[in-house]
Amino acid sequence: MLMNYPRSIAAFVVCASLICSTVARAADDDIFYVATITDNEQSVPTESPGKGVAEFRLERATLKLSWKITYQGLTSKPLSIGLYGPENVGANAGLVVDLGKNGLKSPITGTAILSDGVLSYLVTGRTYVNLHTARYKDGELRGQVRRIRAPKNPPSATPAHSS
């Protein structure tokens, strides 16, 4: 019986190593995006002192998109925030992901599994974030989503208030 004990430990260590290396490799494959949201990119001019940042993490293996959005200085109460596409800078598009489904208080966090179509918009740079407020119902802050290098200390793949 003592002879099997070291084998059991060795088998456990090998299995645990394989599991951990798979998880680490999946995280290494994640793609990161960011959008600086301001009034400068709105298609209809707005006068807002507001600004913000939307950070995204895409897990390649599952197509799970996680986000954290922070903002400040809005002229009025936020009504909604979303990811829009497919379009190019300055043009309008349709809502493809509701980013405010867990609430609109900064910071806004959440997750969604992307369809192949939305994924193609994201990876080709054809999505933007638009934050709508009571004063600017068509959008007060907007920013084009662009890919970035992986941060040295990337945020958790799953925000605290994910769905």
What would your notes on this structure say?
The chain is α+β, with helices and mostly antiparallel strands. The protein has a single domain (31-148), classed as Superoxide dismutase, copper/zinc binding domain (Immunoglobulin-like). 20% of the residues lie in helices and 35% in strands. The chain has helices at residues 4-28, 116-123; strands at 31-37, 51-59, 64-72, 78-85, 94-98, 108-113, 128-133, 141-144, 146-148. The strands form 2 sheets. It has a 5-stranded antiparallel sheet, with no helix packed on it. A 4-stranded antiparallel sheet has the order 5-4-7-8, covered by helices on one side.
Output the keywords:
about 160 residues; alpha+beta; Immunoglobulin-like; 5-stranded antiparallel β-sheet; 4-stranded antiparallel β-sheet; about 35% strand
Write the layout of secondary structure elements.
Elements: H1 4-28, E1 31-37, E2 51-59, E3 64-72, E4 78-85, E5 94-98, E6 108-113, H2 116-123, E7 128-133, E8 141-144, E9 146-148
Antiparallel strand pairs: 1-2, 1-9, 2-3, 3-6, 4-5, 4-7, 7-8
